[in-house]
């Protein structure tokens, strides 16, 4: 049996901690034979192989008496790069507990558990449900709603350096004035309206008008402004900081990507550019 979880790109500009999109980079978890102890094979130098691994730890948080298994994890999701690697690991762990423990969790239950662990829904909810998801917690419970998918391809510029989410969050101000918060949320509200109304003439501009997190993080990811400028030149819909960064995501027509890539190289931006697309399935279990 294999569990397959997509990566996710959070925020989409002003949707800080509430909007995210599943994308076509995947973590796969092969559930192999029973074992005396939990063991997980993978090629990541910095991730544990025992039950302290986030995937197993998550599964055991949900069902502590799961019988140990030999697991094999492969992942194309760069760790600590703003593509939701930790959320994909959490979602894999939830699904592992679900299938081994025969829990028959609904999608809503999986989203609630994942949000409880991660703290916000913008990566975990799309990794579970697929597509573009908008969610939050209110009155002690999490709600997540799927929005229409953007009819565009994606180009993820992935700088070599890591940026831990905790460090990128530490760069944010601890409070905003009422005026700042009101305007920031008004931009996000109109963005959401634009997404549901397929008003891409507005969506691109609003996605690039975040007032919550991109400016304070720009010093940590100096490539953002230049990539956005190149995106405009290449006719992209919008460029935003993916999650906590350092990946910078550009939403663009597939045919426009070769020119975008060429313009980036001309501007001295030569880190890998991953040509991906939105994932529509979310987590899957393959027998
Ligand atoms: N495949 C994995 N298996 C086990 N643990 C993982 C895996 N991927 C990530 N992690 C854990 O998640 C941590 C990285 O989480 P972090 O929130 O900093 O980055 P991210 O999830 O990649 O980025 P973002 O939340 O901005 O999209 C790693 O240090 C590791 O502890
Ligand atoms: N919304 C989160 C995503 C990363 O967990 C952030 O930008 O910090």
From TrEMBL:
It catalyses: L-homoserine + ATP = O-phospho-L-homoserine + ADP + H(+). Residues 55-131 form the GHMP kinase N-terminal domain. It is found in: Cytoplasm. Residues 193-255 form the GHMP kinase C-terminal domain. Its EC number is 2.7.1.39. ATP binds at residues 78-88. Pathway: Amino-acid biosynthesis; L-threonine biosynthesis; L-threonine from L-aspartate: step 4/5. The keyword Cytoplasm applies. Keywords: Amino-acid biosynthesis, ATP-binding, Cytoplasm, Kinase, Nucleotide-binding, Threonine biosynthesis, Transferase. It comes from the Bacteria. GO terms for molecular function: homoserine kinase activity. PROSITE patterns: GHMP_KINASES_ATP. InterPro entries: GHMP_kinase_C_dom (IPR013750), GHMP_kinase_C_sf (IPR036554), GHMP_kinase_N_dom (IPR006204), GHMP_knse_ATP-bd_CS (IPR006203), Homoserine_kinase (IPR000870), Ribosomal_Su5_D2-typ_SF (IPR020568), Ribsml_uS5_D2-typ_fold_subgr (IPR014721). HAMAP family: Homoser_kinase. Catalyzes the ATP-dependent phosphorylation of L-homoserine to L-homoserine phosphate. PANTHER family: HOMOSERINE KINASE, HOMOSERINE/4-DIPHOSPHOCYTIDYL-2-C-METHYL-D-ERYTHRITOL KINASE. Belongs to the GHMP kinase family. Homoserine kinase subfamily. This is Homoserine kinase. The lineage of its organism: Bacteria, Bacillati, Bacillota, Bacilli, Lactobacillales. The gene is thrB.
